Amino acid sequence: MNSSRMVGASGLVLAVLLISAGSNVEYGAKAYRFPNIIAYILAGFSVIMLVVEGKLFERYKGVSVENSGVVLGGEKWLDILRTSDFIRLAPMFFILFAYLYLADIVGLYVCSFVTFLSIVTLYAPEKLTVKLFLKYIFVTVIFTGIIYMVFSGGLQLQAPPAYLF
Amino acid sequence: MFEFLQYMPDVFTPWNFMVLVLGTVGGLVLGATPGLSPTMAVALLIPFTFHMEPATGLILLGAAYTATVAGGAVSAILLSIPGAPANIATTLDGHPLAKSGKATAALHYCFLSSFVGGVLGVLVLIFFTPTLSRWALGFGPSHLFWVAILGVTVIGSLGSGSVIKGLFAGFVGLWISTIGYDPVLGVERFVVTDHLAGGINIIAALVGLFAIPQVLTMLAPDKVPGGVKKFAMESQGLLTSIRDTLLAWKALVIGSLVGIIVGLIPGAGGQIAGLVAYDQTKKLSRHPEKFGKGEPAGVVSAESANNAMVGPSLVPLLTLSVPGSPTAAVLLGGLLIHGLFPGPALFTEHAPIVWTFIDSLLVGQLLMCVFGLAISRYSRFVMDVPEFYMAAAITILAVFGTYSVQNSFSDVFVMMALGIGMYFASKLGFSPSPLVLGIILGPIAESNFVQGELIASVGEGVLPYFFGGALNIVLVAFCVGSIGYSIYGEYRLKEQNKVISDIPSGQDCAKEGVQP
Hints:
The complex is a heterodimer. Chain A is an all-alpha fold. Helix content of chain A is about 70%, strand content about 0%. In chain A, helix 1 (about 5-25) runs antiparallel to helix 2 and helix 4 (about 85-105) packs antiparallel against helix 5. Chain A is flat. Chain B is about 75% helix and about 0% strand. Chain B has a two-stranded antiparallel ribbon. Chain B is globular and about 65 Å long.
């Protein structure tokens, strides 16, 4: 299955899910009319994507889609996983999840400091040395300080209550 | 008619002028910083105005509004991250211009066209407020509904991917906007977790859909890991830029007109001004194929529109208490905390305050242009920052900026979820612009749809109400025409590409032993 067909099929599945989410409601069915209309329109767009871009019916006309220049959907997903794109970003996803999870437990500014330092340390191109790491800490302190001055000092932002600052 | 001149000297008192300058410079810097929007900037400044005189406080808010809209174009051009919804269209040609070594020129076009559009918009506000407010009053729910739908359908013609994917993303955005409480009946919808109880905050959506994918792209390996991709900040004379901007006079006129008209429509918001202006300029251009690849007219039309929108968006606000844009809605809060209630009485009981504020908007356009052009010379420092620092800084700013809107971490979770989802969706050919516009225009479309239904149910019927009347027909025709024209354009492009690929190349001919 080519990637356009996968996108179209996924869109259709999404639209069906949205329609069912908006249809089986205990009360207030009228409030779901607008989102249901949108979901039906999305289903229509998905079908168009399948037919036009996915060339769904051309297979049955004997037209080969292999030479259509479209990458096979399964390979596309494996490519995404296989390439260093996803692998390289995996630490970033972990950092983001940890940041969001811990920010209102440990402390927003502390977590922001650690997050900034983690990102620059992990993704800097140069090989990490003690001198470089100290430089990153210095930059992180300056940046976090500016953030604190602007948001908490200047704008009176109330950080969520947490164990630390 | 010339009452505004009477209060012009009040703008130039030392304290008021200093606040105006600070607001302008601060607004440009805030607007240029990815993750901080005009709405956020104005909202964050309101507490600072508590201790000021009403006129001074409004001057600060107005200067920030004007400057952040223009400043948002800096990050749109240099980093492909729009500072505000109004700058979405600027990324389409501004960033390619910067990548082709014309970053300085792009920034010049941005501020010069913003100045022209902004001055025209404020002049419209000054001279035509009474007449324009009466005209804008004539827009009923059906008209506002179609304007919102038009905004979404226009997106389909602007995305770099296919039209159908653009429309799909736009309508997904409309659906996402329904999460939370129904605006009319107050019914809770699709709240699968407490974090969604408040619905999808527009700022969270904007930051998440634009900033987070950009952060992930910065860290992706197809760029030199952590390496700085510098644009050549060429030295371009200001006179050359002025000449080029004036040469794109058609784009300037279209952008200014569209910005004025869109800004006037109460509740419609200025977000679509830049996109509609860009779309119309592209369609009326002799070389539409150049758009999206660094066409100066693209930047000129988008930026003149989004600044021309500023003045007129205050018309329904000052006369009817109906904000013309989300930022105007925040300005309404600024008015109310100073005891200034919008309406006809505002221009009689508080004339000095209101006219001083409007005059400051006019002067502010000139300051925005001057300081913008000056700052643009140093905007290269934004690009000299290594990408890994920029990615880390944008991540933290995105979290703080989103959190600061409602002091809610739920918004931050939503922002991050949308951002990561958008990163993967972009791999499949979807762009964030239609999605975010759908989220922004969704509440407008739905509330007007429901109101229209209620009105139609006791009158002529739903279909005649939404599809009858000259204005409805015109708006529907624009929607259908926009989709149809874009599909035709895409089909034509595919045919052209097919013809080109069918022509045998010299290499192919050599293999066959045939003369090309």
